[in-house]
Design brief:
A: alpha+beta, Sulfite Reductase Hemoprotein, domain 2, Sulfite Reductase Hemoprotein, domain 1, 4 domains, six-stranded mixed sheet, 37% helix, B: alpha+beta, 5 strands, 25% strand, globular
Chain lengths: 552, 106
Amino acid sequence: MYLYDDLDRALLDDRVAEFRDQVARRISGELTEDEFKPLRLMNGVYLQLHAYMLRVCIPYGTLSSPQLRMLAHVARRYDRGYGHFTTRQNIQFNWIKLDELPDAIADLGKVGVHGMQTSGNCVRNITTDQWAGAAPDEIEDPRIFAEILRQHLTMHPEFSFLPRKFKIALTASAHDRAAIRVHDIGLRMHRNGAGETGFEVVVGGGLGRTPYVGKTINPFLHKRDLLSYVEAILRVYNQFGRRDNIYKARIKILVHELGAEAFGKEVEAEWRQIKDGPLALDAATIADIASRFSYPDYARLADDPTELSQARQTDKRFDTWLGNSVANHKQPGYAIVTLSLKPEGAPPGDATADQMDAIADLADKYSFGEIRVGHEQNLVLPHVAQHDLPALWRALDALGVATPNVGLVSDIIACPGLDYCSLANTRSIPVAQELTRRFRDLSLARDLGRLHINISGCINACGHHHVGHIGLLGVEKNGEEYFQVSIGGRADEKAGLGTLLGPAVPYAEVADVVEDIVAAYLELRERPDEIFLHTVERVGVEPFKERVYATR
Amino acid sequence: MTAPQQQKLKITGPVVVTANRLGDGAVVYLDVQGGWTTSLAAAAVTTKVDEARALLMQGLADDINAVGAYIAPVLRSPDGVLTPGNLREQIRLHGPTVALPGAAGM
Ligand code: SF4
């Protein structure tokens, strides 16, 4: 956990007081909506289809148990008893009243949580691997560098009005769980030949209307230079990014139009002027930030304790869950546990206040008070002693967050869509719900293996449909809901965009189409362990296309 | 941006003026008295471009009670009952088409 200092707290207190005043002036009519809108957006307050929505930032997806309890409190006291975890490692509350927003934001501020920079053309929540600090293959905890960036880029005057919003993601593991290649800046920590630690710097990735996988402009940046180099990228973007056309304003367009090489040269030129200045990170600065993260006081435990093997033998359901939702930890005797927020028939990523409270209690009991939010819209208890897994599983099962479908066909990523979002073309949630019903047979889901379905209700791609193994994009045709279907996308270290199968299909047929694609895969795969993505890579999209459109 | 009074309005059937209530974002409709109502049945309806524009101007002029007024299509049954003219407006009026999680859904 990162411990916030007085500066953070003072900043939040000031912001709450300021926002309270702004809301009062809006309600009295002193501020018009045109004047008020940018002010509320700066605090994460949107006006959606039928209510205000508050988006709360969860820096690098790490929550303490008191923070999660506070989210539960806000959901219960000011909202309708639930919240929605997003693909940005944020949480959204859907029903908050304007005059109660200052109180809600003040309550959140008590635990160091806020909605600043969750909207507007600034640097948004910096995201990272939800297994940070726990993953066995991690080089260093990427959250230390996410925090260094967060501190520098929070209310940074030069970067508060960029041409467009800006998203940074980091990973420090070989397997990319943070989708860094589809962010404005992606940072992959690795070691060079000399054994030094640094970052591959990827720029210009992004989804939305014009999707791109990012390009590497620096294969190895020493960690000392992280801040100055990111500053240089932002300066080049701030200067050359287009402000005349919102659809061309993201850095990905600039990188595409200039070419990655030319863009990289601009960054280098800018960087040379500042690299040895105050932004250079010395070891002491990094150590200082690192020291503000508290790490669990692990017990000395052995892997595979007897309690665990006994439970595996006696309870098939437990064994299945363990195989699906529990991953190796860097510390012997511990494990990383994913909590599925994708039970059959439920909106992906939603959790009730009661669930949040109970999960906070379980985190205290079993995971050193830590909870993580992953971009797949699931939660994680990152540091669980293996001998506690049977007891934890029983509690999670009772809460409805132990569906053993993590990474499987029913672990669907979906944006809120037209049920909430004022920008939507189509609904997303009911499509996800129907698909979880169609694939409710978990042994079939396991047989299918890793298969990611991503659903977005419009071209803004909050559901990351371009990088879904199966991606569904809602479009409107003559007032009706239709979906474009693509396959073969992926968000990991080999990130790539899916290929569109053909004409959009009507809402009512989407689940049938997905079933057809899955049936085709089962026929086409060479071996049971050839996952969907590999089959698509091997045979191409044609056989799937034929299957889907043969009878339509 | 073109001011609303200069925008071309195309109306193919009955329309109302709708917005979100300032205090809680609830969906409201301009009524015949010039106030806002959450009941679609009480909304002022027109099929005429000039009237629709006048209603819109009236709605936009009230920046304190409602936010973001615009013209939305409605359907009128033979016995005069109004229903929203498209899915977006249906969801605005009736709420999400899915059950809300936990107690909220009961
Ligand atoms: S993808 Fe579109 S519909 Fe879905 S949440 Fe984003 S803006 Fe809304």
